Description:
Elements: E1 3-8, H1 16-30, E2 34-39, H2 54-57, H3 66-75, E3 78-84, H4 92-100, E4 113-120, H5 129-139, E5 146-154, H6 166-178
Helix pairs in contact: 1-6
Amino acid sequence: xxxxxxxxxxxxxxxxxxxxxxxxxxxxxxxxxxxxxxxxxxxxxxxxxxxxxxxxxxxxxxxxxxxxxxxxxxxxxxxxxxxxxxxxxxxxxxxxxxxxxxxxxxxxxxxxxxxxxxxxxxxxxxxxxxxxxxxxxxxxxxxxxxxxxxxxxxxxxxxxxxxxxxxxxxxxxxxxxxx
Length: 179
């Protein structure tokens, strides 16, 4: 049994990336894992100040919702970041969260496998290359962790469009089950 955290970074109601994250969660739970979905919707996440105090204190000087998310990431064996692709990149919310997870750098952390789940209007693996590169840059700071793969849900644009794509929902479930 693994501890899995899936973080959905879309702020849109009935977002495609969150619908896929929910399916991955169901798959992970069906495989007997301890899994949780955390959505950044309705969370207060402020920008990193770059003060680097966290490198000494192992906690951020900013008081918002990030500290609780950080603890869940630190304790997870597997981390899945779900994001819509905006301009061929991670959502701003996810990038802000990654910056704010900087207190993890000097700490002991459990996560080894880090995945990316994406949705985008365009299809094709080239659509997510820049986003994957951005996440790999974050992972490179954690020598025990590795980029374990990407689930690319391309070809969807309108809210809840994934909800009408049984093939994509099933693929996300299978992805979650294999985590």
